[in-house]
Structure formats: C-alpha cells, structure tokens
C-alpha cells in the first residue's frame, strides 16, 4: 500500500478479477467511474469513485460495492477528513471498530444500510462501501480490508 496518485480507471483501483475473487462471485456489469472535483475549502485535491456490481439497466445507486479514493493537500487534512466522516457515522448510530488494512489501520463503520471501511495513508484516503448489506456481516472483515489494500496498491 502506498500514498498513490489517483488512477483514471477503475481497473487500476481494483480490477474486476480481483473484486470477483475477493467476494467469491462474479459481479454483474462493468465498473463505472465518477471523477470528482477538487474542493479547496476542505483541502481535497482530487477524487475518484468506482461503482462495481451494477445490474443491467440499473444506475449507480444499485452498485453492490463502491470504492472511493481522494487526495488532500497534506497528511493531516486527509486524517482529519477520515475522523470527521467516522464521527458523523457514529453520531448517526453506526457501530465503529478498528481493523487491519495491510500494515495500516482502518475503521469499519457498520450502519443500517451500508458498511464501510475508511482510512488514510499519507495524503490519500480510501473508502470501501458495502451497499445494501451485499456482503454478509460475518464476511466484512475478511473482504473489505482486501479491497481497501488493493485500492491503495498501484499495479506493477
């Protein structure tokens, strides 16, 4: 895992093969990408979201897994954004726990309709979202950290 430049293709975030292998099944559709904008007010210098498992004739809201990467002006800003996001989820009633993501730590946030693994590495942040309880609760710690670590690992 490295503090990496934002890729411009979801295959460079988590490839379809790695995604399918990690979750143990083939997801429908092709990944869709949304490239976010810079937000100087919060120190964000770039953003990319990849939507996986969108059934045919469905939209982004129907994605099973969403992986988002963002870059910030510095390490502190990235860590602060993660902390603020985690606290907002906790305040909304989510269960929060620390998990290993490679050699780093991440925060698993278990909400009613989605679970997410969020963390930072240098100036970058990652979030892996499990939408609509797609991955069963008992498999979250086995799957989400694998996807998070892969999202922060550039292809060789």
Task: Write structural notes for this entry.
This protein is an alpha+beta fold and 156 residues long. 24% of the residues lie in helices and 33% in strands. It is built from three helices and seven strands. It has helices at residues 16-23, 75-91, 140-151; strands at 32-35, 44-52, 65-72, 95-101, 104-110, 114-121, 124-131. Strands 1-2-3-7-6-5-4 form a seven-stranded antiparallel β-sheet, with helices on both faces. The radius of gyration is 14 Å and the shape is globular. The two termini are 12 Å apart.
State the main characteristics.
single chain, 156 residues, alpha+beta, seven-stranded antiparallel sheet, 3 helices, 33% strand, globular
What are the SSEs and their pairings?
Layout: H1 16-23, E1 32-35, E2 44-52, E3 65-72, H2 75-91, E4 95-101, E5 104-110, E6 114-121, E7 124-131, H3 140-151
Antiparallel strand pairs: 1-2, 2-3, 3-7, 4-5, 5-6, 6-7
Strand order of the largest sheet: 1-2-3-7-6-5-4
Provide the residue-averaged pLDDT.
95
Bulk shape: globular
Helix content: 10-25%
Annotation, overall tally of beta strands: 7
- Sheet with the most strands? 7 strands, antiparallel
* Helix/strand/pairing category: alpha+beta
What's the N-to-C terminus distance?
12 Å
N-to-C SSE series? HEEEHEEEEH
The radius of gyration computed from the alpha-carbon positions, rounded to a whole number of angstroms, is 14 Å
Task: Tell me the β content.
Answer: 25-35%
Contiguous uncertain segments of 5+ residues? none
Task: Give the count of helical stretches.
Answer: 3
